[in-house]
Design a protein that fits this description.
heterodimer, A: 243 residues, alpha/beta, Rossmann fold, 2 domains, four-stranded antiparallel beta sheet, 10 strands, B: 308 residues, ABC transporter involved in vitamin B12 uptake, BtuC, two-stranded antiparallel sheet, globular
Chain lengths: 243, 308
């Protein structure tokens, strides 16, 4: 695939929880080497969309196509093995594994599986890159919050994902950590990774996203560059209410 | 073979050799205790292969063990089969049952899984008793072989050795790693690409296979088999208690629990034959309260403190 090709297509995606429509007829494309942001007020269906793409939730109707393969009927582990990696809204690391083992967990079962000495070397290099190199052999309870976030990111990167899903990865960081976090994702972007991120931090959206989808009450209300969508009248109304 | 492998294998080989000569140097009483201990070593260690990393406490050992003993009994008594034939058939049947149970319990976690496996063991016991009483005429079965206690002991030792080899292979494999990840966070396991269902089912089948094999080998020890004896719920609990006493996060953990518990249990059954269940409950409470990570956990904590 070359930059600009559509790698992931979300088509008419709908998710109902009983009578509540959490995601309503949502469509958008993600291109190779693009950072796509999904933004919107609380409860607008952003995280649900992430959960539908990664297979954590089953969609009610619609299609999610990754390089021609329909992800909809697949369980999460098969979606992961097609190259979709994610982080979780509330950071989820493996508490009884060491830092290094946490990263190997991401590499061992992916679409480019690594095991044994090769996996250790690969995971170790990743940790060095994310400045966790000196904490490899520690238990995860020794990590600060941002280090836990870094570790979760390292686990996702260890699978060499085709598409990386970051679900509010910057949430909960203090202002100085936030700058570090934004710089880190900017690095990933300049490496040419394909990323979908759900985010509330506007600075991050402006500086990181190539394009954004804005959701409100489960529906897409705008799509375009961050500058375009953030000046859109309907988006402003969704965030600030009727003026 | 490099030096590290030799270093790791050496204690195991020495233990195996020491255990193998035991029947030659001990009298009948101690050999009988050692045979019981060997049975529990094989059962608890294979039980911990699944329940250790996943934290899913399976109370179904008695069911698989019972299938082993019962099939040997019914095959030899009613269908004129040899012990060896039945000892091969039994683990295969138990593995197939474990597959079905595994598939049925995939979505169960925590206490629901515990209750299901306990219920399953009781159901199998009652079902077999019912079939035996209503259709097969007799209640009990005779298992008559030329085996001495020493033969049974050696067979169990061989099974225990295979369990340890299988366990150390699994622990170093991606399958073992997958099970540890599942035990930590099943949601994350799924999202890093692990087929959590099959990983669990395969390990559960492994424990079912070994439990039935042990049940089959031990059958000649009873001579006369009744479903209520071999499908013993007490056995399921004993296996769990011994494994927890030793600690389930190391392959050799259950071994460290089985030996003292078998000795203590022998003393209890001799001194208080009518209140063994009470002591079983008490020991369970004591272990859970005082040494939640077993002897191996205790040992490692002490070692950690000494280093500091």
């Amino acid at each position: 695939m070359t930059p600009g090709d559509r790698i992931l297509q979300v088509q008419n995606l709908t998710k109902r929880f009983g009578g509540l429509v959490a995601v309503n007829d949502l469509s958008f494309d993600v291109r190779v080497h693009e950072v796509m942001g999904i933004i919107g007020p609380n409860g607008s269906g952003k995280s649900t969309t992430m959960n539908l793409i990664s297979g954590a939730l089953k969609a009610s109707s619609g299609a999610i196509v990754l390089k021609g393969a329909d992800l909809m009927p697949l369980p999460p582990h098969k979606i992961a093995r097609l190259g979709v990696a994610r982080t979780f809204q509330l950071v989820r690391i493996l508490p009884k594994l060491t830092v290094l083992e946490n990263v190997i967990a991401g590499a061992a079962f992916s679409h480019k599986p690594r095991w044994g000495a090769e996996a250790e070397r690969f995971a170790s290099d990743l940790l060095d890159r994310l400045e966790l190199g000196d904490k490899k052999d520690l238990g995860v309870d020794a990590l600060t919050y941002i280090d836990q976030k870094r570790l979760e990111l390292a686990r996702a990167l260890a699978s060499e994902p085709e598409v990386l899903l970051l679900d509010e990865w910057l949430a909960g960081l203090n202002p100085s950590e936030l700058q570090i976090g934004i710089a880190l994702i900017a690095d990933l972007r300049s490496e040419g990774r394909t990323i979908i991120l759900v985010e509330h931090v506007m600075d991050a959206i402006r500086s990181l996203c190539d394009r954004c989808v804005v959701m409100n009450s489960g529906t897409k209300i705008a799509e375009g560059t961050p500058a375009e969508v953030l000046s859109d009248a309907e988006v402003i109304r969704a965030y600030l209410g009727e003026g | 073979m490099n030096r590290i492998v030799t270093y790791k294998l050496a204690p195991g080989v020495l233990l195996l050799a020491a255990a193998a000569v035991l029947p030659l140097v001990s009298d009948g009483y101690w050999l009988s205790i050692a045979t019981t201990a060997m049975m529990y070593i094989a059962l608890s260690t294979s039980w911990a292969l699944f329940s250790g990393p996943t934290h899913l406490i399976a109370l179904s050992t008695g069911a698989f063990f019972g299938i082993g003993g019962y099939l040997v009994g019914t095959g030899m008594s009613d269908y004129d089969q040899s012990f060896w034939t039945m000892a091969q058939i039994a683990p295969v049947v138990a593995t197939a049952l474990a597959l079905l149970v595994g598939l049925a319990t995939l979505r169960l976690s925590g206490v629901y899984f515990v209750i299901f496996t306990l219920g399953l063991a009781e159901m199998v016991r009652n079902l077999v008793s019912w079939v035996q009483n209503n259709f097969l005429g007799s209640r009990g079965l005779y298992v008559l072989t030329d085996f001495t206690e020493a033969h049974i002991y050696w067979m169990l030792l061989a099974v225990a050795a295979v369990v340890f080899l299988a366990g150390s292979w699994i622990n170093q494999s991606r399958l073992g790693f997958a099970l540890r990840i599942i035990g930590n966070d099943e949601e994350v396991a799924r999202h890093v690409g692990i087929n959590t269902a099959w990983s669990k089912v395969i390990l559960f089948m492994t424990t079912g296979f070994f439990a039935a094999l042990v049940g089959a080998i031990v059958a000649p020890r009873y001579s006369y088999i009744e479903p209520n004896v071999v499908f013993s719920p007490e056995l399921s609990f004993m296996v769990v208690i011994m494994a927890l006493l030793g600690g389930v996060h190391r392959l050799w953990g259950p071994l460290v629990g089985v030996i003292p518990f078998t000795l203590a249990w022998e003393a209890i059954t001799v001194s208080f034959p009518n209140s063994t269940t009470l002591f079983l409950g008490l020991s369970f409470l004591l272990i859970v309260y005082l040494i939640p990570h077993g002897f191996t956990g205790l040992f490692e904590t002490m070692l950690g403190r000494m280093r500091k």
